[in-house]
Amino acid sequence: MISLHQLTKVYGQGPDAVTVLDKLDIEVQAGEILAVVGPSGAGKSTLAQCINLLERPTSGQVIVNGEELSGLPESKLRVARRRIGTVFQSASLLSRKTVAENIALPLEYLGVTKAETNSRVNELIERVGLSHRANHYPFELSGGQRQRVGIARALALRPSVLLSDEATSGLDPETTRSVVQLLRELRDDLNLAVVFITHEMDTVLQVADSAARLDHGRIIEQGRLVDLLTNHESALGRALQPNLNPSAPLPGTRSWVVTYDSRDVPADWLQRVSSELGEPAALLAATIQSIDGVSTGNATVGVSNENDAIVKDAFARHGLRASLPNVSRESISISSVQNSAQKEAALWA
């Protein structure tokens, strides 16, 4: 597991000091994926660098499996840092090295024997599904395959924590789904604590168990994904709801945006609401998913009844929140983070 306690990062001194991270408290258990989202300038890049200790926090603690790492002397920090594997937006592969050679780099930095290195590399290549690409060079790989190599390399030193820093940014939807599925499988198989930093809200729904929103260096909101999605008062929960492209309502009806506001929404809620209103409510669009065995999501429904209170009450009796679509969905835009192979190499040294 990894725990951040009162993590603070300040650049500069005196009146020119800028607090980029302000007393963050985050905990990710082994076998859990926490997604961190937030607007551009929120401090996500600095957070990533403080988690893998490429930047030392000004104050606070980074604790991995019960050991506080941020206060260690440099000689011990180099060893401790290996417990945290990092996957960057750019896989940062060396162009003149093959897939196998790129994955072997952290092991070679440590002087691991060739036999042990080959065994570990073969194991990782098979785990990420690239056995048939072991001797290929980065230019011969797709974007998703390059990220799989980056993931394998991040796991080379057997870390207990995996930091994914915009690792799916720029990938097409299908490739993103395959990379996310791989991360979930690795989380389960290796019992990893995963911190997943992203600007892709749809990806959060695919990968995360919990989520946190970072803004102006502070954690504004965090919680289990299912709790956020079933809490209409949660700004992060609303932002995570998928966008819908509903059909136009029939003449004489109005469109209502309906969100799951409870863990106990019946599967036949549309029929029940129709019965209570005395009219067939028309389903214009819907995205429903199951998270931790709980149905969550939103829908657009056409209703002719003009009494807003009656309509809202009919939905509310079944754990649904209904509103007229006069406010657009909140979006959280996230800037991408650029990284280099030299920067990643500092994590292994």
Quick rundown:
By secondary structure, the protein is an alpha/beta fold. The chain is built from 12 helices and 14 strands.
Describe, in plain words, how this protein is organized in 3D.
This protein is an alpha/beta fold. It folds into two domains: 2-224, Rossmann fold; 241-323, 2-Layer Sandwich (Alpha-Beta Plaits), CATH 3.30.70. Helix content is 32%, strand content 27%. The chain is built from twelve helices and 14 strands. The chain has helices spanning 44-51, 74-80, 99-109, 114-127, 143-154, 173-190, 201-207, 225-229, 235-240, 269-277, 308-316, 341-345; strands at residues 2-11, 18-28, 33-37, 59-64, 67-68, 84-88, 161-165, 193-197, 210-215, 218-224, 254-260, 282-291, 294-303, 320-323. Strands 6-7-8-3-9-10 form a six-stranded mixed β-sheet, with helices on both faces. The protein has a four-stranded antiparallel β-sheet with strand order 2-1-4-5, covered by helices on one side. Helix 3 packs across helix 4, helix 3 (99-109) runs parallel beside helix 5 and helix 10 (269-277) packs antiparallel against helix 11 (308-316). It is globular and about 75 Å long. The chain starts with a strand and ends with a helix. Mean pLDDT is 91; it is low at 327-340. Residues 2-241 form the ABC transporter domain. Keywords: Amino-acid transport, ATP-binding, Cell membrane, Membrane, Nucleotide-binding, Translocase, Transport.
